[in-house]
Structures are given as structure tokens and as C-alpha cells.
């Protein structure tokens, strides 16, 4: 980790390195840790120690996902205590306070359980939140194709625009929201190769690993299979199809439109999951240029 942070810090302009903790969907570890003050204190101390020992500039919690109301209350307590400990350590060490952030569900209202994130606490104690605005559709529903990270959806609340608006309505200032964008797609096997629209009947997953495929692999698949690529302006999403294979993903068109949306909403920024899935930095560069141009 020392090599990682040293490399990051050697860049010009200066770049910060964050240590992200968690990510394990369905694991009992985070609910157990947050439910007890002694556990929270031990966790907080260890995270600050590791961050300082290895040269990290901040800490990020990736809990996928707190779904019970009790989990949400404990999450608020954790961030309150974490912020206090970070500020105290900063005064003691005379170092800048560590950045504190959280990767969160695309919406403050968990559609998995109906529980609400503690928006006020997260806004007060975190420097920024990173809504994971993807995985709206995937291998868990193979009955029909779907746009897995669409910006707009007139038929439901499962969309990036709904999630960002809901976070703002839940008390989080837009500058504290960093919008997530996927660098991978979700795939389906079409029931009828002649019906290839969004929402077309499907019978299973398509290419990739269990219905997921990186953007780099999508570019290769499209080229090798002479796939037809369709950009859907209404939803701001892209899909390609070849035979019975169907892939929903983001390309340069949808990325540019999403960055334009993020700028218009006054968001603090955007993030990709994950940079290593890009194809020759195509989407990363597209997003950077769109953000810098202020379009």
C-alpha cells in the first residue's frame, strides 16, 4: 500500500489516495461492527491508524447495503463518531484531517427494504457520498433485456436521475454527491433475435461472466461480431446486439450526456467502477473532457 500511495502522490497535479473498506454484499460483518459502540471505536481507530501508516488521504466505507432501519441508525452513529475521531486525530497529529466518504445505494430509499439512509448525518459528517448509479438490471432477471444504468426512466423510480434527486431531497447538498458510472455492461440472450429493443423478451444471460462484461470486452465483442450499436436518447443508455446476444452499457454518447447532467445538477463529481474495465481510456477521457469543457 505504501507503493500505491507513493505512486499516487507523485503525480502532478496532486492526486489523493483513499482507502475503501467493505463491499461485501450480505456479509454480517458491517452490521455487527456498527451495532456495538466498542466495536465502532475499535474499527474507527484501526482505520485511522492504517490510513496514517500507509499514507492515505482519506477513508471510504462501501457497505452494500444497509437494508434494515437499525442498520441505518447505526450507520449514522458510526459516521458521527468517525468524524469526531478524525478531527481529534488531526489536532493531535497536526496533520490535515482525513477525508471521509461513503459509497451508497443509488437512492436514499433502499428499494430492497424501504429503509432510508440517514441523509442528514451523512451530509454532516461525510465529505462526500458516492451513489452507485448502476446495476439497475442484471442477471437476477433474465426474462427481459434492460438498461442497467439508464439516466432517465419514465416508467419507474429506478434511474440515476431519480436517485440523485432523491439524495438532494434527503438533505445532501449536490456538491457532496459524486455520481457513479459503470465501465461494464450487463448481458442477455434474446428470445427472438429480431426483437432487440430495451425490454425485449430474453431467456438467459449473454456473453461475459454471469451476465457481466467489461467495456473493453464489449468493444472487442462488437467489432468481432459486427454488432449493431444503438444509443437511446430517451433513457440515455446504449446497447448492442448480434444474433441473440444483447448488451446494455454506457458508451461515449451516454457518458457525455451523464456528465452534462451532473454539471447541470451542480454535483461534486463522478466516479467510475472500475477504471481497469475501460478500453484504452476511451470513456475516462471522454468524461474528463466533458467535465473540463463545462458542457
TrEMBL record:
Transmembrane domains' residue ranges: none
Classification via Pfam families: Glyco_hydro_18 (PF00704)
Domain GH18: start-end pairs: 1-294
Keyword Hydrolase recorded: yes
SMART domains with a match to the protein in the record: Glyco_18
Keywords of this entry: Glycosidase, Hydrolase
Family to which the UniProt record says this protein belongs: Belongs to the glycosyl hydrolase 18 family.
Protein name in UniProt: GH18 domain-containing protein
Species name: Datura stramonium (Jimsonweed)
Amino acid at each position: 500500500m505504501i507503493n500505491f500511495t507513493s505512486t499516487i502522490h507523485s503525480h502532478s497535479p496532486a492526486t489523493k489516495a483513499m482507502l475503501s473498506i467493505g463491499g461485501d454484499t450480505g456479509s454480517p460483518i458491517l452490521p455487527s461492527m456498527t451495532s456495538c459502540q466498542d466495536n465502532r471505536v475499535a474499527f474507527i481507530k484501526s482505520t485511522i491508524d492504517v490510513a496514517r501508516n500507509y499514507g492515505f488521504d482519506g477513508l471510504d466505507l462501501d457497505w452494500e447495503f444497509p437494508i434494515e432501519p437499525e442498520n441505518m441508525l447505526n450507520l449514522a452513529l458510526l459516521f458521527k463518531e468517525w468524524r469526531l475521531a478524525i478531527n481529534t486525530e488531526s489536532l493531535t497529529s497536526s496533520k490535515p484531517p482525513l477525508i471521509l466518504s461513503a459509497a451508497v445505494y443509488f437512492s436514499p430509499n433502499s428499494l430492497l427494504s424501504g429503509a432510508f439512509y440517514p441523509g442528514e448525518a451523512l451530509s454532516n459528517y461525510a465529505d462526500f457520498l458516492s451513489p452507485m448509479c448502476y446495476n439497475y438490471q442484471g442477471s437476477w432477471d433474465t426474462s427481459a433485456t434492460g438498461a442497467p444504468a439508464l439516466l432517465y426512466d419514465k416508467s419507474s423510480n429506478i434511474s440515476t436521475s431519480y436517485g440523485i434527486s432523491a439524495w438532494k431531497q434527503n438533505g445532501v447538498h449536490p456538491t457532496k454527491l459524486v455520481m457513479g458510472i459503470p465501465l461494464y455492461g450487463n448481458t442477455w440472450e434474446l428470445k427472438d433475435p429480431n426483437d432487440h429493443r430495451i425490454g425485449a423478451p430474453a431467456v438467459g444471460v449473454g456473453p461475459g461472466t454471469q451476465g457481466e462484461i467489461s467495456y473493453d470486452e464489449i468493444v472487442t465483442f462488437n467489432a468481432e461480431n459486427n454488432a449493431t450499436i444503438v444509443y437511446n436518447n430517451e433513457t440515455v443508455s446504449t446497447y448492442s446486439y448480434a444474433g441473440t446476444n444483447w448488451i446494455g452499457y454506457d458508451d461515449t454518447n451516454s457518458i457525455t450526456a451523464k456528465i452534462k447532467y451532473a454539471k447541470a445538477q451542480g454535483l461534486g463529481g463522478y466516479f467510475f467502477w472500475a477504471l481497469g474495465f475501460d478500453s484504452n481510456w476511451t470513456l475516462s477521457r471522454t468524461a474528463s473532457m466533458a467535465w473540463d469543457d463545462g458542457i
